[in-house]
Amino acid sequence: MTEDNKNIHQDEEQQITLIDDQGNEELYQVLFTFDSEDYGKSYVLLYPTSAEEDEEVDIQAFSFTSDDAGDASKGDLFPIEDDEEWEMVEEVLNTFLADDNMK
């Protein structure tokens, strides 16, 4: 993990509802958020609340602007469209998962 991406924040109380192209809603739990000085953005990683423990899940990632209290679930989400930005987010996620498995 690069030095500027070390501010990972876990808040297990935040949930976000995502709506797909067909209008279906699915509730997601915030896995963690972090800030990147390189890109000047905040990021949120989400997983479906319907996922069973030890089930492989599809983690969603977005850049976001939070509300005044810093709550990602009440701000705006934006897609990550740049390949280098995706690689940075994946690196942070992989480091987080490796650190979490060490506990």
UniProtKB/TrEMBL annotation:
Ranges for the region named Disordered are: 1-20
Q: Biased composition, Basic and acidic residues: where in the chain?
A: 1-12
The UniProt entry's coiled-coil ranges are none
Check the record and name the Pfam families matching this protein. DUF1292
Under InterPro entries, the record lists: UPF0473
The record's similarity note reads:
Belongs to the UPF0473 family.
The record's PANTHER family line, in alphabetical order, gives: UPF0473 PROTEIN CBO2561/CLC_2432, UPF0473 PROTEIN CBO2561_CLC_2432
Q: What is the official name of this protein in its record?
A: UPF0473 protein FC08_GL001352
Upper lineage is: Bacteria, Bacillati, Bacillota, Bacilli, Lactobacillales
